[in-house]
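Private note to self, pasted from the team thread so I don't lose it. Backbone tokens:
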């Protein structure tokens, strides 16, 4: 009797634990087996496998799209582009294997044709393989439909050829080269049931930077969002050098690696809620106390920000504001842009487009004052005393500075042995009806040119 009760308790416990793990999407049998087989007890490992349906979520990655993968806090998906290139791809594979980590690779068709064994190594190691076009053009956003189809289809065909035509080994995942998104390639890929992957943070490892910089950017950007898709390249030596440190730091800081695979007839998609596909839930708002910094790699055409009103701008020209106060009304209140308590909605919201009246100059600012000040400056320059021929160099420089006060700070030091590189001039007697001093030029052409440029009083 007691033995039967113990058996029932054990069965119920195993059932409850299995249901909890499945509901949370923490681990699948495939992942559990991989973790058990990992020879490194201190490895980062792969925490779970996420199954996605490309038809339900055709575009992911917050660098360009509203949705991203449904990850929990401190979960990261590793992706690598542009391979396989044996010299470096094999080293990336060895690093991932030492940490028992699974990733997603986006192969280039031409690379797959030259290195078919490299593609087969990815599959043999248990990684996910998607495609990245045939020739990696950086103009897919400008291509007509026929060119787009050729790049996409040829890249798939070349990768399939390396896999002996086995479509079950190739994921319907695609990353547009250079992330040069456009409606034509996105629409074609969606019509083929292929999911477009952007990313949530890059490490800029395609640039000519040091491995230390690659490491710094990867960790800083992961820490800023705390979850998401990391974009790397398995053809770069700097990536090979930085990857071990990146993985070790992720392990030390409590991050977990998620492996992504496509849904199939016998492998349904992982159950998720709609809000999980956003970096932040649509109902969540974030208070912004300063103007947000936009990363260098963000395509600004896909982002909108609130339009400022005049009261939000911090005007620094004291003369204009003083004139406005004296002549008409009090100066506008100076505040930071945007307002300190501005609240920005999640990525699914569309923020307002600037209205035309936002950029209208208020009546408090009389712009004719600027023109008057400019004319006065020119008249002062006309009245400047010019040294006569043979004057010392220091006097010539001083007169030049009087004519061009803004260039005074950039004049070279005066040498006692230097020469004045200017045409000799003499002082003409002042006009009878004016106190200004006019300069007599050496040639009629120069004098005529000066007369045409003279500003009347």
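Design output:
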């Amino acid at each position: 009797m007691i033995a039967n009760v113990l058996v029932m308790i054990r069965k119920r416990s195993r059932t409850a634990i299995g249901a909890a793990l499945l509901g949370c999407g923490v681990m699948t049998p495939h992942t559990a087996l991989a973790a058990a087989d990992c020879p490194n007890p201190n490895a980062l490992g792969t925490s779970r496998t996420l199954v996605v349906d490309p038809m339900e979520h055709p575009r992911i990655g917050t660098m360009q799209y509203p949705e991203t993968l449904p990850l929990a806090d401190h979960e990261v998906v590793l992706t690598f582009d542009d391979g396989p290139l044996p010299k470096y791809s094999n080293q990336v594979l060895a690093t991932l294997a030492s940490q028992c980590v699974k990733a997603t690779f986006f192969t280039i068709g031409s690379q797959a044709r030259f290195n078919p064994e490299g593609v087969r190594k990815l599959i043999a190691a248990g990684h996910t393989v998607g495609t990245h076009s045939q020739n990696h053009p950086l103009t897919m956003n400008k291509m007509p439909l026929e060119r787009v189809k050729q790049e996409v289809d040829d890249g798939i065909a070349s990768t399939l050829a390396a896999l002996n035509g086995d479509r079950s080994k190739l994921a319907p995942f695609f990353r547009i080269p250079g992330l040069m998104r456009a409606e034509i390639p996105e629409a074609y890929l969606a019509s083929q049931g292929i999911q477009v992957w952007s990313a949530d943070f890059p490490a800029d490892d395609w640039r000519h930077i040091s491995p230390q910089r690659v490491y710094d950017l990867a960790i800083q950007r992961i820490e800023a969002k705390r979850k998401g898709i990391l974009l790397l390249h398995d053809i770069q030596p700097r990536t090979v050098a930085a990857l071990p440190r990146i993985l070790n730091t992720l392990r030390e800081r409590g991050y977990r690696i998620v492996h992504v695979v496509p849904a199939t007839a016998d492998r349904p998609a992982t159950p998720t809620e709609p809000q999980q596909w956003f970096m932040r839930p649509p109902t969540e708002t974030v208070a912004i106390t300063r103007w947000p910094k936009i990363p260098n790699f963000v395509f600004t055409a896909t982002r909108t920000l609130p339009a400022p009103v005049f009261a939000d701008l911090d005007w620094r020209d004291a003369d204009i504001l003083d004139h406005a106060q004296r002549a008409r009304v009090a100066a506008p209140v100076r505040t930071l842009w945007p307002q300190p308590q501005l609240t920005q909605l999640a990525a699914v919201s569309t923020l307002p487009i600037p209205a035309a009246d936002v950029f209208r100059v208020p009546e408090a600012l009389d712009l004719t004052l600027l023109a008057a000040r400019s004319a006065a400056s020119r008249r002062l320059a006309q009245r400047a005393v010019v040294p006569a021929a043979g004057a010392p160099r220091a006097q010539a420089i001083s007169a030049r500075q009087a004519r061009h006060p803004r260039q005074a700070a950039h004049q070279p030091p005066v040498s006692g042995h230097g020469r004045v590189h200017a045409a000799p001039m003499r002082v003409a007697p002042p006009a009878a009806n004016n106190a200004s001093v006019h300069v007599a030029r050496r040639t009629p052409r120069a004098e005529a040119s000066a007369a045409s440029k003279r500003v009347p009083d």
